[in-house]
Amino acid sequence: MSETRERYGKPSEFLDTLDGHGIYNATRLQECDFDVSFVPTFSMQQTIDAIKARGLGGNLHGDEDARVIWGYTTSAALAKQYLDHVPSGRLHGRGSGFRADLAALKEAGL
User: Fold this and answer.
1) Is 22 helix (H, G, I), strand (E, B) or coil?
2) pLDDT tens by residue, the chain, 110 residues
3) Which one of 20, 45, 93, 97 counts the least CB within 10 Å of its CB?
4) Which of 7, 56, 2 lies closest to 36 in space, CA to CA?
5) What is the pLDDT of residue 92?
6) How far is CA 9 from the centre of its chain?
7) Which residues contact 81 (CB under 8 A, 6 or more apart)?
8) How confident is the model at residue 10, as a pLDDT?
9) How many other C-beta atoms are found inside a 10 Å radius of the C-beta of residue 73?
10) H-type helices in 1-110, by residue range?
11) What is the DSSP letter of 27?
């Protein structure tokens, strides 16, 4: 039996499946039927370093060669590309910024 992946035609549809604080395998970008070539991806080590720098604690395990995406950087990149501005840029919180980017994309019909 083959695995069927969900497909997303709009940035907001894809972001609806993410969380601003989430970390996801970058292969999720393959589910998008729109250009995502500009969305930043991060190594596992970059992600671990960012978690430690923020003092968040916890552990992140996975293939050290894997690339991941972060919810809030993905929303900012999509907003910048498709809206020509980043609503989250005026906010400090990752969650509130993510929600602002998502709302602006939805409002624009994207």
Assistant:
1) coil
2) 445 568 999 999 999 999 999 999 999 999 999 999 999 999 999 998 888 887 776 777 777 788 999 999 999 999 999 998 888 777 566 777 899 999 999 999 99
3) 45
4) 7
5) 66
6) 16
7) 35, 38
8) 97
9) 18
10) 11-15, 44-53, 71-83, 94-107
11) G
According to DSSP, residue 2 is labeled P
**Tokens 């968040």, residue located:** 56
Extract the tokens encoding 67.
Answer: 């690339």
Q: Do 75 and 106 form a contact (C-beta atoms < 8 A)?
A: no
Output the pLDDT for position 2.
44
Q: Is 69 helix (H, G, I), strand (E, B) or coil?
A: strand
Choose among 43, 48, 108: nearest CA to 78: 108
Give the pLDDT score at 53. 86
* CA 58 from centre of chain: 20
